[in-house]
Protein backbone atom coordinates (compact mmCIF):
# COMPACT_ATOMS: atom_id res chain seq x y z
CA UNK A 1 0.00 0.00 0.00
CA UNK A 2 3.01 2.31 -0.04
CA UNK A 3 2.33 5.66 -1.73
CA UNK A 4 -1.25 4.62 -2.52
CA UNK A 5 -2.89 7.69 -0.94
CA UNK A 6 -2.63 11.26 -2.16
CA UNK A 7 -1.87 14.21 0.07
CA UNK A 8 -4.96 16.03 1.34
CA UNK A 9 -3.21 18.67 3.41
CA UNK A 10 -4.91 21.43 1.41
CA UNK A 11 -8.39 19.97 1.69
CA UNK A 12 -11.13 22.24 3.00
CA UNK A 13 -13.02 19.25 4.40
CA UNK A 14 -12.39 18.16 7.97
CA UNK A 15 -9.14 16.28 7.61
CA UNK A 16 -9.99 13.22 9.67
CA UNK A 17 -13.25 12.70 7.76
CA UNK A 18 -11.47 12.96 4.44
CA UNK A 19 -8.82 10.48 5.58
CA UNK A 20 -11.47 8.11 6.96
CA UNK A 21 -13.32 8.17 3.64
CA UNK A 22 -10.19 7.41 1.61
CA UNK A 23 -9.13 4.52 3.85
CA UNK A 24 -12.70 3.19 4.00
CA UNK A 25 -13.02 3.17 0.22
CA UNK A 26 -9.70 1.32 -0.04
CA UNK A 27 -11.11 -1.29 2.37
CA UNK A 28 -14.54 -1.51 0.71
CA UNK A 29 -12.99 -1.88 -2.75
CA UNK A 30 -10.65 -4.64 -1.58
CA UNK A 31 -7.53 -2.57 -2.20
CA UNK A 32 -6.86 -3.04 1.51
CA UNK A 33 -7.81 -6.72 1.96
CA UNK A 34 -9.65 -8.12 4.96
CA UNK A 35 -7.32 -9.16 7.81
CA UNK A 36 -4.44 -7.15 6.31
CA UNK A 37 -2.43 -4.70 8.37
CA UNK A 38 -2.69 -1.15 7.07
CA UNK A 39 0.45 1.01 6.74
CA UNK A 40 1.81 2.50 9.96
CA UNK A 41 1.12 5.97 11.30
CA UNK A 42 4.28 7.57 9.93
CA UNK A 43 3.70 6.20 6.43
CA UNK A 44 0.04 7.25 6.33
CA UNK A 45 0.73 10.69 7.77
CA UNK A 46 3.35 11.24 5.10
CA UNK A 47 1.10 9.99 2.29
CA UNK A 48 -1.88 12.09 3.36
CA UNK A 49 0.18 15.07 4.50
CA UNK A 50 -1.57 15.22 7.86
CA UNK A 51 -0.78 15.09 11.58
CA UNK A 52 -0.95 12.01 13.77
CA UNK A 53 -3.92 13.56 15.59
CA UNK A 54 -5.98 13.71 12.39
CA UNK A 55 -4.99 10.17 11.42
CA UNK A 56 -5.86 8.78 14.85
CA UNK A 57 -9.29 10.45 14.69
CA UNK A 58 -9.85 8.82 11.29
CA UNK A 59 -8.83 5.40 12.59
CA UNK A 60 -11.08 5.85 15.61
CA UNK A 61 -14.03 6.63 13.32
CA UNK A 62 -13.36 3.60 11.13
CA UNK A 63 -13.02 1.41 14.19
CA UNK A 64 -16.47 2.52 15.36
CA UNK A 65 -17.88 1.39 12.00
CA UNK A 66 -16.33 -2.05 12.32
CA UNK A 67 -13.75 -1.61 9.56
CA UNK A 68 -10.55 -1.44 11.59
CA UNK A 69 -9.14 -2.85 14.80
CA UNK A 70 -5.95 -1.65 16.48
CA UNK A 71 -3.80 -3.89 18.66
CA UNK A 72 -0.55 -3.09 20.50
CA UNK A 73 2.60 -4.45 18.84
CA UNK A 74 0.53 -5.74 15.90
CA UNK A 75 -0.81 -2.63 14.24
CA UNK A 76 -4.15 -1.67 12.77
CA UNK A 77 -5.89 -4.52 11.00
CA UNK A 78 -8.74 -4.52 8.46
CA UNK A 79 -11.61 -6.37 10.10
CA UNK A 80 -13.47 -9.15 8.27
CA UNK A 81 -16.47 -8.03 6.22
CA UNK A 82 -18.98 -9.83 8.43
CA UNK A 83 -18.25 -7.28 11.18
CA UNK A 84 -18.71 -4.14 9.04
CA UNK A 85 -21.63 -1.93 10.01
CA UNK A 86 -23.59 -1.88 6.74
CA UNK A 87 -26.47 -0.06 8.42
CA UNK A 88 -24.30 3.02 8.90
CA UNK A 89 -25.47 5.70 6.42
CA UNK A 90 -21.95 7.11 6.11
CA UNK A 91 -20.55 3.70 5.24
CA UNK A 92 -23.20 3.28 2.54
CA UNK A 93 -22.31 6.70 1.17
CA UNK A 94 -18.64 5.76 1.00
CA UNK A 95 -19.52 2.66 -1.05
CA UNK A 96 -20.85 4.73 -3.95
CA UNK A 97 -19.25 3.73 -7.22
CA UNK A 98 -17.26 0.86 -5.72
CA UNK A 99 -19.73 -1.97 -6.34
CA UNK A 100 -22.09 -2.93 -9.15
CA UNK A 101 -25.10 -0.68 -8.61
CA UNK A 102 -27.69 -3.19 -9.81
CA UNK A 103 -26.33 -5.88 -7.51
CA UNK A 104 -26.18 -3.49 -4.55
CA UNK A 105 -29.74 -2.26 -5.16
CA UNK A 106 -30.92 -5.86 -5.53
CA UNK A 107 -29.42 -6.68 -2.13
CA UNK A 108 -31.12 -3.62 -0.66
CA UNK A 109 -34.45 -4.69 -2.17
CA UNK A 110 -34.10 -8.15 -0.67
CA UNK A 111 -33.39 -6.54 2.69
CA UNK A 112 -36.44 -4.26 2.40
CA UNK A 113 -38.68 -7.17 1.47
CA UNK A 114 -37.61 -8.95 4.63
CA UNK A 115 -38.35 -6.11 7.07
CA UNK A 116 -40.50 -3.37 5.56
CA UNK A 117 -43.85 -5.24 5.34
CA UNK A 118 -43.61 -5.98 9.06
CA UNK A 119 -42.69 -2.35 9.73
CA UNK A 120 -45.90 -1.29 7.97
CA UNK A 121 -47.90 -3.75 10.07
CA UNK A 122 -46.37 -2.47 13.30
CA UNK A 123 -46.95 1.14 12.26
CA UNK A 124 -50.63 0.34 11.71
CA UNK A 125 -50.82 -0.87 15.31
CA UNK A 126 -48.40 1.45 17.11
CA UNK A 127 -48.14 4.81 15.31
CA UNK A 128 -48.87 7.69 17.66
CA UNK A 129 -51.36 10.45 16.89
CA UNK A 130 -48.50 12.78 15.99
CA UNK A 131 -46.89 10.20 13.72
CA UNK A 132 -50.20 9.61 11.94
CA UNK A 133 -50.55 13.36 11.43
CA UNK A 134 -47.04 13.50 9.99
CA UNK A 135 -47.75 10.58 7.66
CA UNK A 136 -50.96 12.29 6.55
CA UNK A 137 -49.10 15.49 5.64
CA UNK A 138 -46.54 13.50 3.69
CA UNK A 139 -49.24 11.59 1.84
CA UNK A 140 -50.99 14.85 1.01
CA UNK A 141 -47.77 16.03 -0.66
CA UNK A 142 -47.62 12.73 -2.52
CA UNK A 143 -51.15 13.25 -3.79
CA UNK A 144 -50.37 16.76 -4.99
CA UNK A 145 -47.23 15.63 -6.81
CA UNK A 146 -49.01 12.70 -8.43
CA UNK A 147 -51.86 14.96 -9.63
CA UNK A 148 -49.52 17.54 -11.16
CA UNK A 149 -49.41 17.73 -14.99
CA UNK A 150 -45.70 16.90 -14.91
CA UNK A 151 -43.97 14.88 -12.20
CA UNK A 152 -41.29 16.67 -10.18
CA UNK A 153 -38.98 13.66 -9.83
CA UNK A 154 -36.68 15.17 -7.21
CA UNK A 155 -39.63 16.25 -5.05
CA UNK A 156 -41.22 12.81 -5.40
CA UNK A 157 -38.04 11.02 -4.35
CA UNK A 158 -37.82 13.18 -1.22
CA UNK A 159 -41.46 12.67 -0.24
CA UNK A 160 -41.15 8.94 -0.96
CA UNK A 161 -38.14 8.78 1.37
CA UNK A 162 -40.10 10.68 4.04
CA UNK A 163 -43.10 8.35 3.67
CA UNK A 164 -41.16 5.14 4.25
CA UNK A 165 -38.90 6.67 6.91
CA UNK A 166 -41.88 7.78 9.03
CA UNK A 167 -43.28 4.26 8.80
CA UNK A 168 -40.08 2.80 10.28
CA UNK A 169 -40.10 5.48 12.97
CA UNK A 170 -43.73 4.64 13.81
CA UNK A 171 -43.29 0.94 14.57
CA UNK A 172 -42.89 1.40 18.31
CA UNK A 173 -39.79 -0.80 18.05
CA UNK A 174 -36.45 0.96 18.49
CA UNK A 175 -34.61 -1.68 16.44
CA UNK A 176 -36.38 -0.40 13.32
CA UNK A 177 -35.04 3.14 13.72
CA UNK A 178 -31.71 2.55 11.90
CA UNK A 179 -33.56 1.19 8.89
CA UNK A 180 -35.44 4.46 8.56
CA UNK A 181 -32.16 6.36 8.64
CA UNK A 182 -30.43 4.38 5.89
CA UNK A 183 -33.28 5.09 3.47
CA UNK A 184 -32.07 8.65 3.02
CA UNK A 185 -28.70 7.41 1.78
CA UNK A 186 -29.95 4.55 -0.41
CA UNK A 187 -33.32 5.59 -1.76
CA UNK A 188 -32.41 7.96 -4.58
CA UNK A 189 -30.03 5.49 -6.24
CA UNK A 190 -32.40 2.62 -5.51
CA UNK A 191 -35.32 4.32 -7.26
CA UNK A 192 -33.19 5.26 -10.25
CA UNK A 193 -31.96 1.70 -10.77
CA UNK A 194 -34.98 -0.38 -9.80
CA UNK A 195 -37.89 1.52 -11.33
CA UNK A 196 -38.65 0.34 -14.84
CA UNK A 197 -40.03 3.64 -16.07
CA UNK A 198 -39.72 5.93 -13.07
CA UNK A 199 -43.33 5.43 -11.95
CA UNK A 200 -44.51 6.65 -8.56
CA UNK A 201 -46.56 3.59 -7.49
CA UNK A 202 -48.99 6.11 -6.06
CA UNK A 203 -51.91 3.70 -5.72
CA UNK A 204 -49.77 1.27 -3.70
CA UNK A 205 -48.59 4.07 -1.43
CA UNK A 206 -52.21 5.11 -1.02
CA UNK A 207 -53.26 1.60 0.02
CA UNK A 208 -50.37 1.33 2.49
CA UNK A 209 -51.28 4.72 3.93
CA UNK A 210 -54.97 3.83 4.30
CA UNK A 211 -54.18 0.49 5.93
CA UNK A 212 -51.89 2.13 8.47
CA UNK A 213 -54.34 4.92 9.23
CA UNK A 214 -57.17 2.42 9.74
CA UNK A 215 -55.02 0.21 11.97
CA UNK A 216 -55.25 -2.78 9.61
CA UNK A 217 -51.91 -4.48 10.21
CA UNK A 218 -52.56 -7.50 7.98
CA UNK A 219 -53.49 -5.35 4.99
CA UNK A 220 -50.57 -2.98 5.57
CA UNK A 221 -48.19 -5.94 5.56
CA UNK A 222 -49.74 -7.46 2.45
CA UNK A 223 -49.79 -4.26 0.37
CA UNK A 224 -46.23 -3.40 1.37
CA UNK A 225 -44.99 -6.77 0.16
CA UNK A 226 -46.92 -6.40 -3.09
CA UNK A 227 -45.42 -2.95 -3.50
CA UNK A 228 -41.88 -4.30 -3.15
CA UNK A 229 -42.58 -7.15 -5.56
CA UNK A 230 -44.29 -4.98 -8.17
CA UNK A 231 -43.02 -4.32 -11.67
CA UNK A 232 -41.76 -0.89 -10.60
CA UNK A 233 -39.22 -2.58 -8.35
CA UNK A 234 -38.33 -5.34 -10.79
CA UNK A 235 -34.75 -6.52 -10.70
CA UNK A 236 -33.36 -9.77 -12.02
CA UNK A 237 -34.62 -12.50 -9.71
CA UNK A 238 -31.22 -14.09 -9.45
CA UNK A 239 -29.78 -10.80 -8.15
CA UNK A 240 -32.22 -10.30 -5.29
CA UNK A 241 -30.67 -11.64 -2.11
From TrEMBL:
PROSITE patterns hit by this protein: HTH_GNTR
Transmembrane domains' residue ranges: none
Coiled coil: none
Residue span, HTH gntR-type domain: 13-81
Source organism superkingdom: Bacteria
InterPro entries xref list: GntR_C, TF_FadR/GntR_C, Tscrpt_reg_HTH_GntR, WH-like_DNA-bd_sf, WH_DNA-bd_sf
Entry keyword set: DNA-binding, Transcription, Transcription regulation
Molecular functions per Gene Ontology: DNA binding; DNA-binding transcription factor activity
A Pfam family per the record: FCD
CDD domains per UniProt: WHTH_GntR
Keyword DNA-binding: yes
PANTHER family for this protein: GNTR FAMILY REGULATORY PROTEIN, TRANSCRIPTIONAL REGULATOR, GNTR FAMILY
Name used for this protein in its record: FadR family transcriptional regulator
